[in-house]
Design brief:
- This protein has twelve helices and no strands.
- It has helices at about 5-20, 25-40, 45-55, 65-85, 85-95, 100-105, 115-130, 130-145, 145-150, 155-165, 175-185, 190-220.
- The longest helix is centred in the C-terminal third of the chain and has 29 residues, at about 190-220.
- About 30% of the residues are buried.
Length: about 220
Amino acid sequence: HPKTLQIPLFNILKAFANSNPKIGYCQGINYIAGLILLITKEEDASFWLLKVLCEKILPEYYTSSMPGLLTDVKVLAELARQEIPALATHIDKMQMPWALFCSKWFICIYAEVLPTETVLRIWDTIFSEGSKIVFRVALGLLKLNQDKLLTKTDFACLAEEFKEIVASKSTVNCHTFIEDICDKTGPLPRSRIQKLRAEFGAQVREEQMERERRRKADGSGMKDG
């Protein structure tokens, strides 16, 4: 029963925060740790799987300024502009920030937005193939739902459609969903991801340093986050 897992989950999150003070506690981690614990039923196994995901596979997603997450949002936007230019142009034309819909996908590795069985299939693939799967799923969702998204001509309707696509029938059957994603996205070489991450990672770091410089110069505002 989930209630019996509350103490083990607290122990896992506390142990993780102590083992990695740079990250500490970030809200997205509780979804990941909770789902891992539901499957493994073991604190130790859950702790180590959590460390691999947060420190090795998705580094800098969960630090205070989240440069890894912000970088990957930019990477997805660029991949979309290359792979599905009509939809990417539509999203940009509607002035919708990419982070508005995909940061929630990425920060909890789809655990908060897709059906549990589908999430577990995605995670299996992430552990075997690495973080490029995060992008393949995102691109797949965009490609599978491109026609519907293109019909939304105001900001609010487009935002609502992004909520709908992760709850659609196509996401329920984990086997066919993964097959559809693979069919729609094709190969996505690690080298391509690494190149884009290097380019946009430098951009994110520079933006964050510039905001911090301005904050110090005017003596106001919060620390970059």
